């Protein structure tokens, strides 16, 4: 395999990993789980009651986040404990929140323009 081919494979792999992470965060419940965990480690038995969903549903969401490398998990007896793998995920969410605020601001400005034009 040439160095150009290796570079192309690496680029695709990086893209695939990005998609996996972003897809995992694109689900509202999974995003809320990450925010719920914050910098704490919690047992599934603490997580699922907070969301009012079946434990099996929350476990599936936790597994998606784990498989995407967003969460770590460990067993402690019969309990499965989860925590956010890296605080950098919260930096990403802050950037997204900043963009959301920009968009809200733009919508408010557009609303003012429209209101002024119909008066």
* C-alpha-based Rg, rounded: 20 Å
Average pLDDT over all residues = 89
Estimate nothing, just give the exact number of structural domains: 2
Oligomer: single chain
CATH topology type of the largest domain = Arc Repressor Mutant, subunit A
**Approximately how much beta-strand content do the residues carry?**
5-15%
Beginning-to-end CA distance, first to last residue: 67 Å
- Poorly predicted runs: none
The biggest sheet amounts to:
3 strands, antiparallel
Helix content: over 70%
Net shape? extended
Question: Can you walk through the features of this model?
Answer:
With 119 residues, the chain is mostly helical. It has two domains: 3-86, Orthogonal Bundle (Arc Repressor Mutant, subunit A); 87-119. It is 71% helix and 12% strand. It contains five helices and three strands. The protein has helices at 3-25, 28-37, 44-51, 55-67, 88-118, and strands at residues 42-43, 71-76, 79-84. Strands 1-3-2 form a three-stranded antiparallel beta sheet. Helix 3 (44-51) crosses helix 4. The longest helix is centred in the last third of the chain and has 31 residues, at 88-118. The protein is extended, with a radius of gyration of 20 Å. The model has no long low-confidence stretch (mean pLDDT 89).
